[in-house]
Design brief:
The structure is a homodimer. Chain A is an all-alpha fold. Helices cover 74% and strands 1% of the residues of chain A. The first copy, chain A, has a single domain, classed as Farnesyl Diphosphate Synthase. The two termini of chain A are 21 Å apart.
Chain lengths: 294, 294
């Protein structure tokens, strides 16, 4: 599989997820418009892609995989809409467009985020997502763990606390923060395939792949924050350095951060193939996390 | 059943729900503390009570009923924590104590509310809530409908839009707003018994009871806002009149509002007993909605 073929597949899956989102989201009122602004029209859909490709390992049907991918992207978008609020990271731009609270107002940002979290669970619970209620409730349980106080919310709270305290985190603390704030949903996205396929044995191996991928993804984010192109990113860069925040790059230096990310990706790929979960797409997804420019 | 016996039962159920919440909520960090502040130590637990009493109609086990009641109270608390934020209703007091964003800060209010919504779904999905995955996924689906853009979030958005526009709503609009903002979760609480009991036939009748009860409950709220005791309520009163907001009382007058609430409760009780869903507790709960002082 060439990286061009991978890029084409990533785009195709992103288009298919976009269409599912468009069909699943409500429309015709302010909150629906704000939800759509928050989730449609942007992003690489890497989380959704991981759902689709891990689901493919177990022969899961397309509508099941795409609904689950759409749910993950709604949950991800909810976290971005709330993290962008003035009382949190106070961001004006996201994917090159005004953030929800800048386009409308703060109340709309809070409520649209709230409704995006709700619809993520609603999509997972829909009978047309999977005929098996056990699989659907397994997804709900796993997404709740990724999303709540012991997952993304906990990570965001750690991040804000560190910024307020003004004492930069060390490497262990940054790793924990990242595993909650970014890693938890990437882990869910990879476990989703095993949950949908009813394959409990594969789940820990996909989780291990996801944890290495998630950490490498975050290190690449920190590298792009220092080296990246603001226009291509569609958001403000260099924010962490300007705020004096510790990142993998500030703690390790550029070269060592690059090496750590590369090592993580090797581990992820070797672990996966050793478990007979070999997938060219998941291999390329791991390499992409390392080389992406946005 | 005397109203004293009802009051004692309401207190006992509230105590049991409080114990379940204490056991189910996380602890040991800022977000956990804020979640606990938002949901523990207060409230009549009327929504949880409705879950417990409708579940009792179908012989549902106590742990199933109490977990579901705890989930409803977490969802209710999430909506209060977010509605209290400065960008929404900007309230300093709730149940006689500082609101979450006043005790901590806005970011903590947003995140604790987010995590309370998440944990509501997590509790419903837990295997120990019900042995039947179909019942659990049915609860998740119904709670998502009550909570999201077509439910509570939609109602709160209507409320804010009306306030911003400065043109008071008419009776039909107020009724719609209330059916979303308050009614949807009361309806879920009553339907929960039928979902847990696997009794699809009873569900619409419990929903009809809930809709009448919910509307009467809101009318009573509007009456208490005009006539109530601020110390007993534990929150600021007369806010709606001061803000020039339309309420059932401003539109109907005190006497007609009282009469409408009383008629609704009669309809709710008659409808219930006609369907052989007779429950002295649910009858008294309806009467309580009409006569409560806080």
């Amino acid at each position: 599989m060439t990286s061009d073929a991978f890029a084409a597949r990533l785009r195709d899956v992103a288009d298919a997820i976009e269409q599912r989102l468009d069909a699943l989201l409500p429309h015709g009122d302010l909150i629906s418009d704000a939800m759509r602004h928050g989730v449609l029209g942007g992003g690489k859909r890497l989380r959704g892609f991981l759902v689709v490709e891990t689901a493919a390992l177990f022969g899961v049907s397309e509508v099941t995989a795409l609904n689950t991918a759409a749910a993950v992207e709604c949950l991800h978008a909810y976290s971005l809409v709330h993290d962008d609020l003035p009382c949190m990271d106070d961001d004006d731009l996201r994917r090159g467009r005004p953030t929800v609270h800048r386009k409308w107002d703060e109340a709309t940002g809070v409520l649209a985020g709230d409704a995006l979290q709700t619809i993520a669970f609603e999509i997972l619970a829909r009978p047309d997502t999977h005929s098996n209620a056990q699989a659907r409730i397994g997804l709900v349980m796993a997404l709740a763990k990724a999303s709540g106080q012991a997952g993304m919310v906990g990570g965001q709270a750690m991040d804000i606390a560190a910024e307020t305290a003004g004492s930069p985190l060390n490497l262990d603390e940054i790793s924990l923060l990242q595993s909650l704030k970014t890693g938890a949903l990437i882990r869910f996205s990879c476990e989703a395939g095993a949950i949908l396929g009813g394959n409990a044995d594969a789940r820990p191996h996909l989780a291990a792949y996801a944890d290495a991928l998630g950490l490498a993804f975050q290190i690449r984010d920190d590298l792009l924050d220092v080296e990246g192109d603001e226009d291509a990113a569609g958001k403000a860069l260099n924010k962490d350095a300007a705020a004096g925040k510790a990142t993998f790059v500030s703690l390790l230096g550029i070269e060592q951060a690059r090496q750590k990310a590369a090592d993580l990706i090797d581990t992820a790929i070797v672990n996966l193939s050793r478990q007979s979960l070999s997938s060219p797409m998941l291999e390329q997804a791991a390499r992409f996390a390392l080389t992406r420019q946005t």
